Batch of 2 targets.
Target 1
Amino acid sequence: MDFRNFSLHISQTKVNRFVDELAAGKFMATVCKKCGKKYYPPKADCSNCMESDMEWRQMGGRGTLETFTKIYVPPDHFAVRPPLMPFSTIQFEPCPIGLLEVEDGLKIMGWIPKMDVKKIKVGMKMKASPQLLPDGKITIVLEPI
Ligand SMILES: [Zn+2]
C-alpha cells in the first residue's frame, strides 16, 4: 500500500515524516528549538523566528471540538461515507468535518463520519485517529470520547 498518498501530492519535502508517522497512527508536530513555537501540521521552518532547527514531537489526538461544518460534495479521497449512488461519489447526506483543539492550541482537522450531524456540538470532547481508506490513502477521523 502506498501510504504517501495523503490529500496532497507530496513527493519529497522536509516534512515527509508527517505522512509516514500518520500512517503509523501518530500525530506529529514540530517545535522550534530556538523560540519554542509548535506547529501542526508540522513545518520545517519557523515562521516566528525564521529558524530551521526544528524538533519532531508526538502529540495527543484528544481534545475539544472548536468548530465544524458540513460538506455536501466531499473530494473523492475524503469520501469516507459510501456513495449513495453506485459509481458516484455524490452524497446527499452531509459529511461533517471538524476542527479539534488539542494540546497547546494545536488543531487537527478531520472528518466526523460516524455521528449524526444533529448530535455534533461545539465544545464536545473528541479524539482524532488516522484512518486508512480502501484506496490506500489516509484521512483523519474524529470521534466522540
Ligand atoms: Zn522559532
Target 2
Amino acid sequence: MALIQARQHRHPIVTSTDTRDPVRLDVTTGRTASTILIGGGSVEQLPALLDAHSVSARRFVVSSPTIWRLHGAEVQRVLGAVEPILLPDGERYKNLQSVTKVYDALIRANADRGSAIVAVGGGVVGDTAGFAAATFLRGITLVHVPTTLLAQVDSSIGGKVGVNHTLGKNLIGAFHQPRLVVIDPLLLQTLPRREFRSGLYEVVKYGMIASRNLFDLLSHKTKAVFDREPSVLVPAIVESCRIKADVVSKDEREGGLRRILNYGHTIGHALEAVTKYRRYRHGEAIAYGMLAAADLAVARGALAEGERQALVQLIGALGPLPPVTDLPMQEVLDAVKRDKKVLNGRLHFVIAIEIGATMTIDDVTEPELVAVLERLGLSHS
Ligand SMILES: NC(=O)c1ccc[n+]([C@@H]2O[C@H](COP(=O)([O-])OP(=O)(O)OC[C@H]3O[C@@H](n4cnc5c(N)ncnc54)[C@H](O)[C@@H]3O)[C@@H](O)[C@H]2O)c1
Ligand SMILES: [Zn+2]
C-alpha cells in the first residue's frame, strides 16, 4: 500500500565558479525559525551573522581536539580568544558524560538563559552540544558550524539532538532547532577521504528521494566532487540542504513526509547494528541500504531497472564499500524488525519509484526482505 508519495524538486542546479555569495535557506517549524547560510569562506562572516541573528555575546564554543587543532585558530581569529569546551572525539563519546562536561563548563562560567552554544564539529559534536543546549536551563540558543560533509548536509539541519545510551544509539534526545547554521565547504578540505565519502552517500540519498538534477550532477562530475571543487561541491551541498530544510519545515516530528529522509536507512541501520557500529561509516551502510531499497522497488515493478543501474553505477564510482557477504542473514533480519520504523507491527519502507521521487510502503514481507538481502550477498549460514 502506498502511504505517501513525494515528488521531485525540479529546479535546475546552477554550478558556478563564484561560490562566495552565501546561499540562505530558512527552516520554519511550529514555533521556531532557523537560518542556514552556505558558502565558501562563510566562517569569516560568523561574527556578523551571530550579531544579525541576535545571538548573545556570551558564546560558548563546543568542539573536539581534532577539529580544534585543524580549525581552532581560524575560529579564534574571527570570534576572538574563545576558550573552547572540547569533547573527546568519536561516536563512543556521544554520551551523557560528554553532555555533563558541557553543563559543568557552562555552570562554572555562570552561563545564563541568554547564553549561546556554538557547536563546531561533525555530527557527534553537534548532536552532543545540541542536546546540552536543548536542556541547559530548559534550552539556550544553539548555533551549528558543521565541519563534516555529513553534518553539513544532514545532522546540523532539522533540530534533532541527542546522545547514545550504552544499550542503543540516539536513545536520549530532543528537538531543538538551531538559530543559525553556518556551512562553510572550505572546512571540508581537511576531512579524511573516507569521512568525506560517507557524507557523499547521504547526498546521493537526497538525489534519489528528491532531485534527479542532484543525482546527475554527482554522476557527471564525480571527479570534481571528489576533488572537493567548490564549483560543484557547493551546489551539491546547497541542493541537499534545500531538500532537508524543505522536508523538515513541512514535517518536523516525522509524522509522515520526514520519513523519506530514511531512504536506505532501514537496512542501513540494521547493517550498522549487526556490526556494532564498527565496520561501516554511517553513509557506507546507507549505500547498501539504498541498493537494497532499489532492488526491492525493481522486484515490485515500482522502479525501472535502468534507474537502479544508474544508482549501482554511481555508488560503485564513489569507491569501495566494506563487505557485507559474511553477515548472518537472521541477525540482519532481526535488526530490521527491531528498527524504530516498525510502527504497529508494520515495517515502513521508503522506496524510490524513479530517481527523484519516492513512496512509502508498509506491506514488505519477510520473504521479500530475505530475497533482497540474498541479492545483496548475505548468506543463511
Ligand atoms: N541530528 C541528526 O539529525 C543526525 C543526522 C545524521 C547523523 N547524525 C549523527 O551524526 C553522527 C555522525 O556524524 P559525522 O559523520 O559528522 O561523524 P563525527 O562527528 O564523528 O566526525 C567524523 C570524524 O571527522 C573528524 N572531523 C570532523 N570535522 C573535520 C574536519 N573538518 N577535518 C578533519 N577531520 C574532521 C572528527 O574529529 C571525527 O573523527 C552520528 O552520531 C549520527 O547519529 C545526526
Ligand atoms: Zn543518515
